[in-house]
Every structure is written in C-alpha cells, then in structure tokens.
Amino acid sequence: MDLQLKDSVILVVGGTGLIGSAVAETARAEGATVLTAARGDAADVRLDGSDDASVEAAVASVLVEHGRIDGLVVAAAPPAQSLDPARASDPAQVVQAIDDKAMTFLRIANAVIPHMRDAGSGRIVGVSGQNALLTGSITAAARNAALIIAAQGLADQLAGTGVAVNVVNPGPVTASARAEVAPGAPGESTPQQVADLVVLLLSPRLAVSSESIAVGHRFRGAVAL
After folding, report:
1. Can you tell me the distance from the alpha carbon of 14 to that of 44, in angstroms, rounded to the nearest whole number?
2. Which of 39, 141, 197, 202 could form a disulfide with 71 if both were Cys (CB 3.0 to 4.6 A apart)?
3. How many Cα atoms sit within 13 Å of 210 on the Cβ side?
4. What is the CA radius of gyration of the chain?
C-alpha cells in the first residue's frame, strides 16, 4: 500500500534515539523528507522540549526551510531506566517526569498545530508506553497516562480539521523481542515494529484519530474499555 508520504515533511523529535531513529529511517524509505530533532548536535534540528523558545525556534526553522510540516512524531523522553524506582511516588519526580514526557509532547504539538490547521491536514503521533496501564510505578504510569490524555484532548479539539492525533504505546522495546507474553505483563516489540506503526499513522490515507494503540500484545490479563 502506498502511504502517500512521498515528498511530505516529517519532523521526528527524539529522532536520534532508539525508536526515533527507526521512525526516521522508515519514513525516509517511504519517500518522506525527514528532519530529526533533539537536544544534541547529532540531530538535524536542535530542540529542547522543555523550553518554549527552543521549540518555537526549531519549528520556525523547519517551516522556513521546507515551507510546511506534514507530520510530527514525538518520541523524546528520558528512558524508563533513568527513573529512580525508590522515588516512584515522590511528587517531585512525578512532576518532572510528566514535564519531560507529556508536556514536551504538548509543547511541540501546540507549536506545529497552527500550521497544520492552516494547511487543512497533518498527522501527529506521540510515543507513550504501556506503563500507563500499570500501578507499579506512579512516576512511569503518570507520565505515560498524561501524554495519552493530552493527545486525545488535542485530537478532539482538532476533529474535523484534517489534523489527526494518535498515540503508540510500546511495552518493553528490545532488539530481539520475544513472542511470549507473560500474564500480567505487556508484550515486547522491536524498534522497527514500533516505527512501522508510527509511520502508518503518519499516512494521510488513514482516517484514524484519538486512538491509543499498543505495540506488541496489550497488557495481558486486563480489560481496557
């Protein structure tokens, strides 16, 4: 199936990371012009998602150079392993984690949305995680759940505009994901499997919005209505 991404402009925030780099490569293979964004020098665009001015400057630079942004992927967040399990319920860590992940998504999406609305089309995909469904770490659950809620709120605000907002929720992401799924756990997936779903959701052919979609098996042993 032709995803109709040829010559589209895709901004991948966190595009030098494990998932973001796989998304960038996959979108390029579909013919898209892909710009990676991150805090470091390895990315095409310097962007600090915690800084409004940095976000606005990065988005403006893409628009000046390319004239439009057809798709936005936000895969930027400190890895789960960097969260201190001993502080899982510490309000300071919880607030910081929500800002680092959910508010970063919201800041960047808000910077891009006016241009997509003017164009009458656009696709935004956030990368959250199945930890949103687990109570083991308040920090991990809150930052992922907050991103999902923010994305679904934006999707409702944009209903009927041609701009779609969705979230992809991986479980553990490893280079060689196991097929087995243990009871009380989510399924594993590879970076490429996550990227394939993200890039599919960037396609203008899909009339899908306000969805939160698991990669790998959704948490085994619970019903999500």
Report:
1. 11
2. 202
3. 10
4. 17
Domains of the chain: 9-215 (3.40.50.720)
Per-residue pLDDT of the chain (225 residues; tens, 9 = 90+): 899 999 999 999 999 999 999 999 999 999 999 999 999 899 999 999 999 999 999 999 999 999 999 999 999 987 777 888 889 889 999 999 999 999 999 999 999 999 999 999 999 999 999 988 888 889 999 999 999 999 999 999 999 999 999 999 998 899 888 888 889 888 899 999 999 999 999 999 999 999 999 998 888 887 765
pTM of the model: 0.95
Q: Read off the tokens for 196.
A: 């394939």
Transcribe the chain into DSSP letters. -----TT-EEEEETTTSHHHHHHHHHHHHTT-EEEEEESSTTSSEE--TT-HHHHHHHHHHHHHHHS---EEEE-----GGGS-GGGTT-HHHHHHHHIIIIIHHHHHHHHHHHHHHHHT-EEEEEE--GGGG--S-HHHHHHHHHHHHHHHHHHHHTTTTTEEEEEEEESSB-TT--S---TTSPPPB-HHHHHHHHHHHT-TT----S-EEEESS--TT----
